[in-house]
Design a protein that fits this description.
By secondary structure, the protein is α/β, with parallel strands linked by helices. Helix content is 34%, strand content 18%. The chain has a five-stranded parallel sheet, sandwiched between helices. Helix 5 links the parallel strand 4 and strand 5. The N and C termini lie far apart (53 Å).
Amino acid sequence: MQPFIQASQPTQLPLFEAFLAQPVLPGLKAKEAPGKATQPELFSELTLRGAPGHCHSLLAPILRELSEEDDNRWLTLIAPPGSLTQAWLRDAGLNRERILLLQPGGNQTALQLACEALRLGRSHTVVSWLGNVNHSIRQQLLRAAATGNAQSLNIRLG
């Protein structure tokens, strides 16, 4: 007869405590291991589905963390939904002195504006709301991010 061994279970935190206890976007920030530099992901995507208020509640800590980066460059938001107003940014606790809100104008698309912002390198992260991103669009964003030493985050709201 084999003895029964029970492994101790780690304590489970409630959903939001567990979410807030961890870095919000661990793949988006580069962490250096001793003696070894790592390359951050240049493109990340986040899909949020549900009531707009709930989506905004999940988005707020992510944007807040990005707005407080040690990097002296901007956090740039490209074509955010109309509900992400200056008042919402303030109420969500974001550092508005480090954020650029840009809307495409004229013949310029949100994708073109995002690529330009990434290429220029004046932003550490360019957050865009481009909807579904296919392989071709992803490659454009990756090339632009690599040129500007920036990171691209696309947010899809469902």
